[in-house]
Design a protein that fits this description.
Helices cover 45% and strands 15% of the residues. With 420 residues, the protein is of the alpha/beta class. A hairpin with a 4-residue loop joins strand 5 and strand 6. It starts with a helix and ends in a 17-residue tail after the last helix.
């Protein structure tokens, strides 16, 4: 507990106190603490026999050691330095941009829920909590953080208990066993009370400081904003299978996103209350929302290298994801019209089979070639039979759908019911 309190206090101190950029360090962008008053008369306080003093009337006053004053016009800041120096951009430009976004967002009447599914992430939880508190406090709104412990076998839950004792707005749901990320997100969606819902991973690869930018995009009228890890710090296999995955999904769903599986996303409340995820469907939440009529977009976000532990991604998840994509398409597009899917497949297969049989029949009469013993003949017959079966399955599905008492899940955006 003392360790946790000390970490929180340390994190809340300013990152740079009494820092100045020395002349010799402008080229390499390093920072040096300002000299103390006792040392100001040494080398750091003088340059070529002159001591710098405060400016007067917009002009810089330079006083030499003989108390003679010389003035020169102050030059504008070196824009070339700001453009080329990465350290300056990292510590100042980005912070200023995020502070401006936080100030521009009017969230006084809004609330935010952050959902963090986790599995064996004990090393990163305190650091993540401190970063989240800093960002959410800057937004000046009501907020809560839900840690969803997906059956962790390490000390993750104990860490969350300690965090909760320090700040009760950090809450937790602990599963009896590991159910998967989709189940964790679904339970988090049920528990969330905020007008805006943020999801992110617990491994510190997602940056909490991107939250204001995500919410600002929601305020433009979008219902779901997905992060895009433009510069990724992932293993080779995960990086390239993800690219293939995103390309196939974008083509089949009709929604072009660079990164469907980014853990950092922002939602309006209507999305999380109407989209249900299970299995490995969490990676297709943008697709499910898009097919349900919600407005979906993406923005580039910062992605950090994994600081603790190992990635839990494997090739098996890639193949499972392909099957889940088929499930998404079927349950959203064809659940109430199965004949549109099976009928199309049936017609396609039957047509191919009849074309093969017609080709062989022409050969028999034109060239007197026997066809009954050729493998292509049996392939044609098989495809024709399979096509008829597909078509029959579609008809049976339509009959079941029409006689079912269940109605389609309709999402109502607005209602006007004013008596005149």
């Amino acid at each position: 507990m003392e360790e946790l309190h000390q970490t929180v206090k340390t994190a809340e101190k300013p990152l740079q106190e009494n820092v100045e950029l020395t002349g010799n360090e402008k080229n390499n962008g390093t920072f040096k603490p300002a000299e103390t008053e006792n040392k100001s008369k040494g080398k750091s306080g003088y340059k070529n026999g002159f001591k710098n003093s405060k400016s007067k009337n917009g002009k810089k006053v330079i006083v030499n050691q003989q108390n003679k004053e010389t003035t020169q016009e102050q030059k504008p800041q070196n824009k070339k330095y700001f453009r080329k120096n990465p350290n300056h951009r990292r510590f100042f430009s980005r912070d200023n941009r995020q502070n401006q976004q936080s100030q521009q967002l009017n969230l006084s009447n809004k609330s935010i829920s952050v959902i963090v599914p986790l599995y064996n992430e004990e090393e990163s939880l305190v650091e993540l909590s401190v970063a989240l508190k800093k960002v959410l406090d800057s937004l000046r709104c009501n907020w809560e953080v839900w840690f969803i412990d997906d059956g962790s076998t390490d000390e993750s839950f104990k860490k969350i208990q300690e965090i909760n004792r320090v700040n009760s707005r950090f809450k937790c749901l602990k599963f009896k066993r590991n159910y998967g990320k989709s189940a964790a997100l679904q339970e988090g969606f049920k528990a969330a009370k905020g007008d805006y819902v943020i999801t992110m991973d617990a491994d510190l690869q997602d940056d909490p400081e991107e939250i204001p930018a995500l919410i600002a995009k929601l305020n433009e009228g979008f219902d779901l904003v997905s992060g895009w890890k433009k510069v990724r710090h992932d293993p080779f296999i995960k990086k390239h299978t993800s690219k293939l995955f995103n390309g196939v999904t974008s083509m089949m769903v009709g929604l072009k996103l660079h990164d469907y599986n980014c853990g950092l996303k922002a939602y309006v409340r209507d999305v999380v209350k109407n989209v249900r995820v299970y299995g490995e469907m969490h990676r297709y939440i943008p697709a499910l929302a898009h097919l349900s009529g919600f407005r979906v977009t993406e923005i580039a976000v910062t992605h950090h290298e994994r600081k603790y532990g190992k990635t839990k991604y494997g090739l098996s998840r890639f193949f499972n994801g392909l099957f889940d994509l088929i499930t998404v398409l079927f349950t959203t597009k064809y659940i109430k019209r199965p004949l549109h899917l099976f009928g199309f497949l049936g017609v396609l297969s039957s047509f191919a089979g009849f074309c093969i049989i017609a080709y062989l029949t022409i050969l028999k009469f034109v060239e007197s070639t026997p066809i009954s013993g050729r493998p292509l003949f049996f392939v044609g017959i098989l495809m024709a039979i399979v096509g008829v079966q597909f078509f029959s399955i579609g008809l049976i599905g339509e009959m079941i759908t029409k006689t079912s008492a269940d109605t389609e899940n309709v999402i109502i955006e607005q209602t006007i019911n004013k008596n005149t």
